[in-house]
Every structure is written in structure tokens, then in C-alpha cells.
Design a protein that fits this description.
This protein has ten helices and 14 strands. The chain is of the alpha/beta class and about 280 residues long. Strand 3, helix 2 and strand 4 form a beta-alpha-beta unit.
């Protein structure tokens, strides 16, 4: 476990403090690793993303090359076209917005290093996520957490378009499986999800699980635009919101066919865990 102030999740974890903006720290953290899992997160701050993510990616690639460590990169879908109804591993990068361009640049840096034979790596790409406990996601924040607090749920832009969400523990297990599968390297993989779903249906499942009659409001784009003038978090969210106007179907058939025994958490199973007491 590597971060500036790492903490153990399991008793057997080894923790390494490191500032990944510094190459020597990155090298020290990676040295001796067979497989490196890049799951670095930064706050939703566009300038921070632009300043730090490319440097961190460059340091990690260079350190993996120097130590001959394999790299499994946990990626997102920001670089895909916002109205690309079906996303596959071969979907072209058409980033719109500053954060999207940063994520495209990171993926391209790694793909270039892979193509040049500098490192052995793979990309595990995930769509928007939801999860247990203190998961920080749009769906958790606007729907599940508000339901827990007996507040009206908020649906961004549309309740009727199809979205694809990944259960965070599934994403972790899938990336670990890929990292331990030799023939998975050299490729991009969409991590496995349940079928695509509308927010309307997701709320219906939540009602079934909780036994509550859940009221929700659909917040249109113009309301978010006004909010962005006064709230930095809403401003940072604006780049992603246009995607909520279109069906967004994330295809993970490649993974499902290669690993048919992988147990994918259904939305009902995931929501049961979200509201487990």
C-alpha cells in the first residue's frame, strides 16, 4: 500500500510512504514488486489533475521499466466520446474537457510504452462506480446516501437513459485477476459489470431492498450550471454531466468471455450491501 500517509487495510499489508511526484520515491515504492497496481486517485480538481497525473504516470512507467515490474493500470472512461452509446475496448479516444484530456494523455503514455516494449502492462478500464461504506461516487452521494438520511434522492439530468455502473469490490477483484493472468498483459480490458440500467430502475430496486417509498427529483443541466457559479464541487462536475443525457452502455463482454467463472455482483446484491446494517 503506497501513499503519502499509507495505512494498513489488512494486518499483512506492507505500507510504503511515498510522494509519487518524486521519481526516487516512486522507484523505492515499486522496487521489488512483481505486479504494480496503479489505482492512484486525486481530488476532483482540474488544475491538480493537469499538474500531477502526467508526472505520476511518467514516474510509474519509468520505475516499472527500471525494475522490470509489470503494471496493471486502473483507468476510467473519461476519454470516450460523451455520446458513444456502446463503449468497447476499441472505442476511439475523443476527450472533451480538461480532465478527460488528462486521462486520455495518461492512457496514451502507457499504450506508447507498451507498444515500444518498455514495460509489460495492461489497462483495466471501469465506468462510473458505486460501492459500500464510504464510497465517493455520484450515485452514492446523490442517491444512496440521501436515502439513508431520509432525504429526497437527486438524479442528474435524466432518469430514463441507460447507465452502466460497476461495483467497486468487483473492479478490485477483476483488476487483481488480470494482474495475475500472464496472457492478459499487452491489452486493454473493460472490467465486468451487471447490465446497463436507468436511474429510475435503480431507485425501484433500492425501494425493494429498503422497503421505502423513495422520492426523487431530476435536476436539469441548467440548475447545475447555476450551481457551478457558487460551488466548486459542482463546477468540477460540469464536465461529466453532458454524458448523463445519453445512453451510456459499457461493454465488458471481452472480460466475461475470458473469465466466465468471475462472479459479478448484481445491482440488487450491491444495493443490499450498501444498506446492510
Amino acid at each position: 500500500m503506497v501513499s503519502r500517509k499509507p495505512g494498513k487495510i489488512h494486518d499483512t499489508d506492507e505500507v510504503v510512504p511515498a510522494d509519487l511526484m518524486k521519481y526516487e520515491d516512486t522507484l523505492n515504492a515499486i522496487d521489488g514488486s512483481d505486479v504494480v497496481y496503479f489505482a492512484v486517485g486525486l481530488p476532483a480538481d482540474t488544475e491538480m489533475w493537469e499538474d500531477r497525473f502526467p508526472v505520476i504516470m511518467e514516474n510509474v512507467i519509468k520505475a516499472c521499466e527500471e525494475t522490470h515490474s509489470k503494471l496493471a493500470f486502473f483507468d476510467n472512461t473519461y476519454m470516450y466520446e460523451k455520446n458513444a452509446n456502446v463503449q468497447t475496448e476499441t472505442s476511439p479516444f475523443r476527450p472533451v474537457g480538461r480532465k478527460s484530456k488528462v486521462r486520455a494523455k495518461m492512457a496514451e503514455m502507457l499504450l506508447s510504452a507498451m507498444k515500444d516494449g518498455k514495460i509489460e502492462a495492461l489497462i483495466g478500464r471501469a465506468p462510473e462506480f458505486y460501492g459500500p461504506d464510504l464510497t465517493q461516487s455520484i450515485t452514492n452521494s446523490l442517491i444512496f446516501n440521501r436515502v439513508k438520511d431520509d432525504k429526497k434522492a437527486i438524479v442528474p439530468v435524466s432518469a430514463s437513459v441507460l447507465r452502466t455502473l460497476i461495483w467497486t469490490p468487483d473492479a478490485s477483484r477483476a483488476l487483481a485477476l488480470l494482474g495475475n493472468t500472464p496472457d492478459a498483459f499487452g491489452q486493454t480490458w473493460h472490467l465486468p459489470t451487471d447490465k446497463s440500467i436507468t436511474y429510475k430502475k435503480l431507485i425501484e430496486i433500492t425501494e425493494e431492498v429498503t422497503g421505502k417509498n423513495i422520492k426523487y427529483t431530476v435536476v436539469p443541466m441548467w440548475v447545475f450550471k447555476i450551481g457551478s457559479l457558487f460551488n466548486k464541487q459542482v463546477k468540477e462536475l460540469m464536465e461529466l454531466l453532458p454524458r448523463y443525457k445519453y445512453d451510456n452502455i459499457f461493454n465488458s463482454n471481452k472480460f466475461k468471455q475470458r473469465f466466465p467463472d468471475f462472479k459479478i455482483t448484481t445491482y440488487k446484491e450491491g444495493i443490499q450491501q450498501v444498506f446492510k446494517k
